[in-house]
Known about the structure:
By secondary structure, the protein is an all-alpha fold. The protein has helices at 2-11, 18-24, 29-33, 45-57, 63-70, 74-84. The protein is elongated, with a radius of gyration of 29 Å. It starts with a helix and ends in a 32-residue tail after the last helix.
Amino acid sequence: MIETIRQGLKEEGVVVSISQLCRWFEVPRRTFYYQSVKAPPKVQPRFAEPIKAMIEDNPSFGYRTVAHLLGFNKNTVQRVFQLRGWQVRKRPVGFRPRIEARRSRASQPNEPPASE
């Protein structure tokens, strides 16, 4: 941004130093010269390929289920999901991979204790 402003002013015949522009916009000079040395995150194929195969076969599995079935760390699987932009498809309404849905104790009517 600072450099484009400097080039625009230079084309109009006004020469301004980087230091002066940084002072005008109240930006530290070091931010102009800063270059990030951090590499972009990489996904190792040994993690991505089995995860991709698993979610293609079972699109409703979340990252915890996938991690457990593959034996990977759940944080690793979550990071792969995030970096690759993969999302889990929601299950159809009423479909739950449970054996039987049970009523909770709170919804059961209170029965008085048997007195003898």
